[in-house]
Amino acid sequence: MTADVQAVRAAVDAAYREEWGQVVATLIGLTRDWDLAEDCAQEAFAAALTAWPRGGIPRRPGAWLTTTARHRATDRLRRDTAGRAKLRQLAVLAREPDESPAEDIPDERLRLIFTCCHPALPFEARVALTLRTLAGLSTAEIARAFLTAEATMAQRIVRAKRKIAEAGIPYRVPPAELLPERLAAVLAVLYLIFNEGYDERDGRRALAAEAIHLARVLARLLPGEPEPRGLLALMLLHEARRATRVDDGVLVPLERQDRSRWDRALVDEGVAVLDEALATRRTGPYQVQAAIAACHATAPDAAGTDWPQIAALYAELGRLAPSPVVELNRAVAVAMADGIPAGLALVDELAASGRLDGYHLLPATRADLLRRDGRTAEARAAYEEAVRLAPSDADRRYLTARLNAL
Amino acid sequence: MKYMLLICDDETRSPSTEEMAADPVHQAWEADLERRGAEVFGARLRPTSTATTVRFRDGETLVSDGPFAETKDFVGGVVVVDCADLDEAIAIAAGHPYARWGSVEIRAVWE
């Protein structure tokens, strides 16, 4: 049985996306050697390119790749004395593939992701390591996405792997008593990757897709935990609006986005995933944020938005994960639900607290509420302050346009 | 009286354990300690890049990477524990009273 080169190329590409993390995770599980695992996984994918055209695309590409990578690891370890000693400890490696049917290989990616996101690692290293080992992005790709020199990124990854080995970070899914805290760390890494990919700049777009993919894997592997589903739903609901967020480099506010261009399939999936999470009745910050995104995504039009519900959800979010940014968002929802003066009072309270000093969305939000209230001169001053504080060109262009439209 | 010697530098040289063992100055220092019968316990720590710092606040264990260098903490004591992995070391560290107001820095020992 043979397969044509194009079909093989497509199958290997698909397997890379779907199976890379699993192959690496299994090899790390067997050898505890992260570099060996990555090298052998890489070789297995290269071997597929020559073997599959001759022997045909295997029925389960993941099992073929894992077995091949395992054999490579065995070969390499046999070559040196230290490796042979290690091999004896890892007798499982030497077993023939038919003794351990692939169906029995547990999904090791969960152990891998919890290890990559261990709180003893620097946050940026957790992000880089997750993208390298689970998503299979190259160091160069990760460096490009985070606007870092490749050598710096490579060093960050090397240091993180060294710390895992030298500081004795365990390769495992944390026990129940540690799970909530450690899961929060994993979700924070995935959400950061998604948000980096929400930016439309070159090289970053792929990050959003990787984050959604990893969130799907996590949600599937931790069916009893609602927050991974909450995060997945949040990502899907944001992703659904991607096409309408920016027009010609200028941010488009939610109320002016063309709702007919929102991706309905993603909205429906996001809402369905959120419902599954909410059914557990164990709420968490990602579920609440997804519920807010769902309110927006399912409103028939801007005027039909359920603002009282959104204000209540922000209040809930503020209880679960207190933050002045959440309070600012709640102020907007309150303004829309109960009238501008009620919202402005909350914004002014926040401004007086000084907790959002220097944050451009504080004056921008104030400006927007003042504009809606017809207080044009005050709105102008607030927009001008927001433009001064704006962190990106897109933000500056948007705020300048609002200022000029007064 | 017992004294703990904290051997410090800025980690730019980072000699390996083998290099340390081969260093004649270090060999002389060890021979001197042995002659005096002074060494109670000694351990070389892996670099600060492998450090983990644990705090316990409001019922929560807070784990962060790196040493406590950014604070004005000083080492007030050392305990050497032998346990399964970093998570177990974190659990032990979090239970120490100092973790409630100060912090406990965990450093893997060269073995």
Automatic annotation (TrEMBL), chain A:
GO terms for biological process: DNA-templated transcription initiation. Keywords: Sigma factor, Transcription, Transcription regulation. The keyword Membrane does not apply. Residues 113-164 form the RNA polymerase sigma factor 70 region 4 type domain. Residues 21-80 form the RNA polymerase sigma-70 region domain. Belongs to the sigma-70 factor family. ECF subfamily. This is Sigma-70 family RNA polymerase sigma factor. It comes from Jiangella rhizosphaerae.
TrEMBL record, chain B:
Gene3D superfamilies: Dimeric alpha+beta barrel. Residues 1-111 form the YCII-related domain. InterPro entries: Dimeric_a/b-barrel, YCII. Belongs to the YciI family. This is Transcription initiation protein. It comes from Jiangella rhizosphaerae.
